[in-house]
Specification:
Shape: globular
Largest sheet: 6 strands, mixed
Oligomer: single chain
CATH topology of the largest domain: Rossmann fold
């Protein structure tokens, strides 16, 4: 069984101790502690180490399992929600799937609102966990319209919005788990952290933790280039900018071209054996660019989900020159 890496000095993975037979765990304990693996071929032309954190290994298949679990559990602990309540959230996909899983696990009704151009695999995954799905026209407001509708439904008493865009429990999940894992897995040698920016929860939580360990670590946030539409990466209008976002924690911002994100996504699968989505391709592309310019660097990027929830796009069947 593949375990989260505890790297030796050359960042190779070590064997974990075997789990005794008949030992069982609850699904909560399978969130996090994801593997950190080195890109063996895509970055071999550089003089840096590029590491990919495989968040698709979480039980619902993405990095969003971490904040979804933390948002619901912290709200429970505060007494804001109780088992049997209805929860509402606007989502582009991964957070919705993760919330649907946790809601099923904890005994909540989950209403998810998302743009209608999301892949069928993501919609089906939400329904499989028992969530109610409401779609809004992608061309009629998209995620912004979904967020507005969620707040409207809350005001009408139809449920409680968890608000991943303004909920500190989102970024705290990464401060408590993802950041410490990266620090431990690289033995404190990480020099650059690369992450897509959507709700910005991942980059905010990890940046806060890593900067506390070493303020010289460079935090690189990714946003779509003009005209690019990459699921999970957003360029928000000012009035919809997530309130958990603290720009002072991001040292550099890179624009991700659509074509490069898609090409690198395919290369990850065909050259590295890492099957991931388009935003993960963008993160790997950016990490390799940084590696080319920073010999000796130790760069970690987030591979935020698995590629199987994008198969219907046809992007994996494209043959690149």
């Amino acid at each position: 069984m593949l375990q989260s890496a505890t790297p030796s000095s050359d960042f190779t993975q070590t064997e974990s101790t075997s789990v005794p037979s008949l030992t069982s765990v609850v699904i909560d304990s399978t969130i996090g502690n994801t593997p950190l693996v080195r890109l063996q071929r895509l970055a071999e032309h550089t003089q840096a180490i590029v590491l990919a954190k495989l968040e698709g290994n979480n039980p619902a298949g993405s990095v969003k399992d971490r904040p979804a679990y933390n948002m619901i559990m912290q709200a429970e602990l505060r007494g804001d929600i109780k088992v049997g309540d209805t929860l509402i959230e606007a989502t582009s996909g991964n957070t919705g799937i993760a919330l649907a899983m946790v809601a099923a696990m904890r005994g909540y009704r989950m209403i998810l609102i998302m743009p209608d151009n999301s892949t069928q695999e993501r919609k089906d995954a939400m329904l499989a966990y028992g969530a109610t799905l409401i779609e809004v026209p992608a061309q009629g407001g998209g995620m912004e319209a979904a967020r507005d509708l969620a707040l409207q439904m809350q005001a009408e008493g139809k449920g409680r919005v968890l608000n991943q865009f303004g909920n500190p429990d989102n970024s705290d999940a990464h401060y408590k788990t993802t950041g410490p894992e990266l620090w431990q897995q690289t033995q404190g040698k990480i020099t650059h952290f690369v992450s897509s920016m959507g709700t910005t929860g991942t980059i905010m939580g990890v940046a806060r933790y890593l900067k506390e360990q070493n303020p010289d670590i460079q935090i690189i946030g990714l946003q779509p280039a003009d005209g690019a539409q990459i699921a999970g990466i957003r360029r928000w209008p000012k009035e919809y900018l997530p309130t958990i976002f603290k720009p002072e924690l991001v040292d550099h911002t890179m624009d991700i071209p659509q074509i490069e994100a898609e090409k690198t996504m395919r290369k990850l699968a065909r050259v590295e054996g890492i099957f991931a989505g388009v935003s993960s391709g963008g993160a790997a592309w950016a990490a390799i660019k940084i590696a080319e310019e920073n010999p000796g660097a130790v760069i970690a990027c987030i591979i935020c989900d698995r590629g199987d929830r994008y198969l219907s796009t046809g992007l994996y069947s494209v043959i690149d020159e």
